[in-house]
Design brief:
The complex is a heterotrimer of chains A (537), B (322) and C (292). Chain B contains 15 helices and no strands. Chain B has 322 residues and is an all-alpha fold. Chain C contains twelve helices and no strands. Classes of the chains: A alpha+beta (537), B mainly alpha (322), C mainly alpha (292). The interface between A and B is large, with 80 and 100 residues.
Chain lengths: 537, 322, 292
Amino acid sequence: MRSLVRHPFDHARRFKPLAQRVDAFGVMAMRRLAALVAVVALLVGLTACSTGQRVDLGGESSGNFIAAIAGEPDQLDPHKTSAYFSFEVLENVYDTLVEPDANLEMKPALAESWDVSPDQLTWTFHLRPGVTFHDGSPFTADDVVYSYRRIIDEQLTNVDKFSAVTDVTAPDPQTVVIRLKQPTPNLLTNIGGFKGMAIVQRRNVESGEIATRPIGTGPFSFSGQKSGDSITLNANPSYWGGPPKVSGVTFRFISEPTTALSALQAGEVDWTDSIPPQRVAQLRDDDSLNLAVTASNDYWYLALNEAREPWNDVRVRQAIAYGIDRDAIVTATSYGTAAANQLAIPEGNPWYTDYHRYGYDIEKAKTLLKEAGVTNTDLDMLVTNEYPETVTAAQVIADNLAPLGITVNIRTVDFATWLDEQNTGNFDMLMMGWLGNIDPDDFYYAQHHTGGTSNAQKFSDPAVDRLLDAGRVETNREARGQVYADAATRIADEVSYIYLYNPSVIQAWTTDVAGFESRRDGAVRFRTVELDQGRTQ
Amino acid sequence: MTRLVTHPIARFLARRLAYSAVVLFGVLIVVFALVHLVPGDPVRIALGTRYSPQAYEALRSASGLDKPIIQQFFSYIGSALTGDLGVSFRNGDPVTVILLERLPATVSLAVVGILIAMLIALPAGIWSALHEGRASDAIIRVASQFGVSVPDFWMGILLIALFATTLGWLPTSGYQPLLDNPGGWLRHIVLPALTVGLVAGAIMTRYVRSAVLEVASMGYVRTARSKGLSPRVVTFRHTVRNALIPVLTITGIQLATILGGVIVVEVVFAWPGLGRLVYNAVATRDYPVIQGAVLLIAALFLLINLIVDALYAVVDPRIRLS
Amino acid sequence: MTTAETNTRVSSWRLLLGNPVTVVSGAILAVIVIVALTANWIAPYGINDVNVPDALQGPSGAHWFGTDELGRDVFSRVLVATQASLRVAVISVVFAVVVGVTVGVVSGYRGGWLDTIFMRVVDVMFAFPVLLLALAVVAILGPGMTTTILAIGIVYTPIFARVARASTLSVRVEPYVSVSRSMGTGHLYILSRHIVPNIAGPLVVQTSLSLAFAILSEALLSFLGLGIQPPQPSLGRMIFDSQGFVTMAWWMAVFPGAAIFVTVLAFNLLGDGLRDVLDPKQRTMIEARRKQ
C-alpha cells in the first residue's frame, strides 16, 4: 500500500499558504470537519451493513459446522473436476451407487443391493427407493444412466473407470443394468471409489448450473459460494441415510496452514485439514484439539516428460531416480508424518509390494548419465503454489541434481496454469500427487497405460500395458495381486514415475466435535458430525 | 438557478468531474487491454482437463469471448453504464454482487486504518511542529521514517506471530460483519487495521507536521499574537484549526492510497475484501471480476481525489480560478 | 559556473555532512551496497545448500542468522537476496528516470498538445491503483526478475515525469531563457545549461526516495509470488516462507524483514537529508536555523 504510493513530493506543492481571513476560515474548517465526520460515519455505517446473505460464518443458526480447507474448488461439477478441494465439498453433496466404508470396502449407497451374472459380464443394481435430489425431484434409474452416459459419451475426467462398460440401461425406475465386455473385479470401486462418478441430475447439467450450483442426493445441499472465501451447504433433512446432525457446513478456504490452525485453536473453525506438518509433533500433546494422523493411500511422485529429450532415455530417468535424496524430501515436506515409498501403494495396504532399488546414489547416477551421453543439461521443473510441498521438494531436488550437471529451473505457477502446462506437455519434470486411490487399478492404470487419461508423461511400455489390462479382468485375488506387483515393479524399473512418498491424512478438530472419522482415502464426510455445545458464531 | 450553474465552484466541480470521467475511461481501456493480454485461456481453465470442442465453443460464445476485442470492449462499457459488470467466470455470480459483498470488508479496514493513522498523526505531527527543531521533534521525525520504511506484510506477520499465535489475545485472520457480532468485528479488525494504520500514520505525521509548520509561520498568526492573545490560545485556535484543511485533504489522499494498496494486508490476514478478490481473480483469469474490481477501486480512488480537490477549491479561491 | 554556484556547492556539502542522521544513513547505505556487491564472495554457505538434518536451527556461531526449513544458511541467503533487491531497485529506477525525465522535460519544454497528451497519460497512470498495475504487468509477462524490474520501472516513471516537468516549467518561463531563444541559442544548449541543472536537485531527492520504494515494491511482489522465483533467494519470498515457522523459527522472518527495513530506512533518511539541502524552501529553513 504505502510502498507504491504517489510520492509525497507531488502534494507538497499543493500546500499553498492559506488566505487571510482567519475567523471565517476557522468556521469553514469546522464545517469541513463536520462534513468529513459525516462521511466517515456513513462509511462506517456502510461497513456495518453486510450485503447479501450472511452465509459465511454461520449467522444465527447454531449447529453450523465450519471446516477450513486449504484451497478453493476450481469447479463443482463432479464429472469434470479433479481437484481434491472440490471433492472435499462434493463428498457431502453427491452420492454414488456404492461407496467405501471406513475400511475401504464397498458398501451400498444409492444402490441397495446388486447381482452379478454367472459370466461376470452383467451387473444388476437395485436402487434405493424414495431418494430425492435436493430440489425435490425423485431419483430414478434414468439419472444413473444419464450420469454414466454423460461421462462415457463426453469423455469426461473419469471415463477410464468405465472402459469395460459396453452398456448401461434402466429396465425400470428402480433398476440399473451394466453390461461389460470383460469380467471386471473392481467394478464397484470404479463406480463408487470417490465422487467423480456421482449421480447427477439432468436438468442441473443441461442448464449449465452444475459447475457452480450443484444439485445432488447427498446429506448436504449447496447453498452458496463466496468466491475466494467460502462455500456453504445446508443439511438435507430428507437424506436417505438420515438427516445430518448439524444444520449446515461452511467450507472456508484458508490456504495458509498456520492461519487455519490458529483459527481452529481459537474456535473460529471446527475442523481443518490445512495443518502445517512441522507443528504436528507439538499438536499431538495439545489437549484442546483432536488430531488424527492417518496413513493414507495418497502418494506424491515426479514425472519426466518422455516426449522430450533426453528424458525419453530410460537411463537418464533412472539417473534422476538415483540422484534424489528421497529421505530429505520426505523430512522437508512432511516432518516425519509421511512414509518414503518407491512405489505407489503404501505399506499396510493389502496390495503393498516392497521395492527399494533406487537408494540415494550419486555415483550410480553419474555413471548412468555418462552412459547416456548426457553432460550438462537444463531441467524445467513444473510446480505449483497450490501445493506448497511441491515447491519445497523442488528446492531439495534442485540441490540434489546440481552435482550431476543438471540445472533445475523451478517454474512455480498457479494451479490452473499448472494443469494447462501438464496437459499440453509443456514441462520436463513435474511433481504432483494422486489422492483417494482404493483399488490397485486406481493407482496405476490411467497414469501408466499407453494413452491413459492421466498419462501426461507419455509413458508407453507393452509389458506394462499387458499386465495392467490383465489386472482388470483377473478375478482370482492372489493372481491379481501378483499381476499388480509385477506391473508396479516394471513401472518403477522403467521410471514412468519416480515415486516419492505416501503422505498421511492430517486432520484436526475441536473437542466440541463428535462423530467425525478420519479416512484413509482422504474423503471428508460430515454427515455424522455433531457439535456438542450450542455455538454463538 | 442560473446563479447556481454559473457559480465558480459548480463550474470547477463540473470540470473536475468531466476530467475524472475521462481518466476513468482511460483506466478502463488500460485494464481491459491488460486483462486480455494475460496468458491463459479462461475458457480452457473453466472447463478443466477434459472437454469436447463443442463445449469449448459453447462456453466461449456464451461468455462473448469469440467476438472481436473492440466489440467486447464497447459492449462491456455499455453494460457497465447500466450497472451490469458481467458475471464471474468461476461461479457465474454477477460481478456487481460480488463486489458489493466484498466492499464492506475493505472499506471497514480502510476506515479503521485511517482512524488509527489520524490518532497517531495528528497529535504527533502537531507536537512535532510546535516543538520544531527540538529533540522531541527529531525523535518524532525519525520515528515516522521508521514507520514509512517498514514493509507492511512483514509487520503484519510479526503482529500475528506476537499477538495472535503466541499470546493468543487476538484472532489470526478472518472478518466478521459489525452488525453480526460487534465484539468479534473489533477483535478481528484490530491487527490488520493496526498494520495499515501504523504505516499510514507514519506518512501522515510528516504531512501534518509540515502543514502546521506552514500555517504557524504565516503572517496572521504573528498578527494575532501582537494583538495580545496568549501564545497557547493562538496556537490552538489559529494554527491548528487552519492546518486542519490540508490535514483533511491528506487524510483523503491516504484513504485513497490505502484502498489502492490494501491487497497485501488482505492476503496476510485472509481478509475477504476487494484486494484479495483481485489477487485470486488474477490467479484464475476471472476477467470480469478483475475488470470490475479494478474499476471499482480506481473509481473510489478518483472519487476521493475529487472530494479532496473540491474541498480545496472551496477553501482556496486561487485554485478554483486557475 | 558562476561564483554563486560555486559557493552554493561548497556549503551544500557542509550542510549535508553537518546532519548526523544523513551521515549515518549514508554510511549504512555504503556498507549495505558494499556487502551486496560482494555477497557472492563473502557468503559463508551456498544459497541453495540444502541440509535437511540441520533445519530450523537458531542463530549460532556456525549460522549467524540461523537456518531455514531446508537447512539453508539464512545469512548467506539474506546477503544474496539483498543484492538481488538492490539490483532490481537500481535498474528499475534507472529505467524510470530515463523514461520519466525524458518525457517530463520534453513535455514541459515543448508544451502544447504533446504536453497535454503526455500528462493525460501520466494522470491515468496515477489514477490507476499502482500495485494493481504492477500485478497486471507481472501477470501478463510471467513472474521473474525481469518482469519485476519492468513493472516497477513502469510504475515509477510518472513521478519522475512530473518532477522533471515541473522543474522544466519553472525554468522555461524565466526571462533569460526567452532572451536566449530570441538570440538564436539552440534548444539543446538551453536544455543542458539551464534546465538540466535545475532538475538535478529534485531529481536526486526523488531518486533516493524511489529507490526506497522500489525495494519495498520488489519485496512485496516477491512476497505475493510474482517476483523473483525460488530457488533464487529474495527477501519478500523468505518472509513468505517464514510464515509457517514464525513461532518456532523467528529468525526466518526477522532477519530478511530487518534487511529490507534497514535498507529502505537508510534510503529514506538519506533522501530526507538530501532534500533539506537541495530543495530551496527547506534549505532556507535549515540555513536560517544554523545561523541562529
